[in-house]
Design brief:
418 residues; alpha/beta; Rossmann fold; Dihydrodipicolinate Reductase, domain 2; 3 domains; nine-stranded mixed sheet; six-stranded parallel sheet; 13 helices
Amino acid sequence: MAGVSIGLVGCGGMGHRHLHAYRALKAAGSHSCEVTAVCDPRSSAASAAADLVETFQRSRPAVFSDHEELIASRAAEALDIVTDPSVHHVVAVPALDEGIHVICEKPLGLTVRACRLMLDAAARSGAVLATAENYRRDPPNRLARAVIERGLLGDIHLMQQTNIGGDDAVIISPWRHVLESGSIALDMGVHYTDLFAYFLGPLERVSGSSFIAEPVRVLAAGQQVGQGIEEVAPGVMRATGDDSIVALYHAESGVPIQLAFIPSGPGRLVQRVVHGRRGTMSVPPDRSGGAVTVQIGDRTLAGAELRRELGGFGLEGVSVAFFGPAGTEYDLPFSAVDAATIAIELDDFARAIAERRAPEVDGLDGLLAVAGVWAVAESTLRSCEISIAEVAEGTHATAQQAVDLAMGLLPETLGGTT
């Protein structure tokens, strides 16, 4: 297939992770896409990104400092948006309205309203809108889904996702602890709500609590807080966005799912367990390469034995180039695995455009993942169980109002539209 021309918008840390993924695709022999433009308001960052692209492509991409100029130039038929999440919709909507395809990093938007603007623009033009969600691309998660789908566990009674323990250090970047720019609870929560739907089907309702476990966070040496972030002491910032979620979801199938995400306090416990009538499955931490294990009676199945029990299992498409056909366990550097899982989602996006089909994780999937996290915040406010469909439709949006206001997306600022 002829490579889809892509413009990368956002050349910071995550943008460079995407560039390493494009490089990994080239090294794997994939010609599904070509980076023809890079864009960042910081000219030095955009130029550095173009320099990197030139090391693995035959040509240097065009460099832009403004996304509107990039859209008007038609230098790319698709955009890969890797900006601050609060402006995902600002970049995506005009591009989609021009018929330019978009893959956008998760969370698709900071609020349901922001996501809806993107979905509506894609519907108007018919352009492809994909959500960049890489956790489900990890081979152990592919295998775990096959275990569930093929009935090895029997009727599913419960899924548990636990990720607890940490400290008071800033997690990755300061903006991830600020409500108006995307809290870590949303940033990580969408990974989990997407995985729950991937394993067990659409989520129906949730009750729980979303909260700030660490009210102040300590910056790494030399790290800057950025504009609008309160520094309560030298090197210490005030957190305004939730960093923790404790919730009970129910899938439409009726399966309950327990989530505990609390990156605070000493100790560490990370586990993903699915329990059914015939057996229990343990899934390793994401991008660790550990083995999926299934306990059925006195038998413990893992690796090749588990794949045989399923009647055979193999990875497909470009995943094989990175992990091998049976690469559900691996021993690779994190940087290589990170690049590979992002590359898989980018390859799927490009092929969806070329094949005129929906991507694996489309805009609606991205919206529902966001709604699934905000529904917990709504449950916290209302002290009751919340319908995720109603959050996705905008019926319950109280918890999102401050963020919508900061982004200028409340109805009165949009002339009464929703």
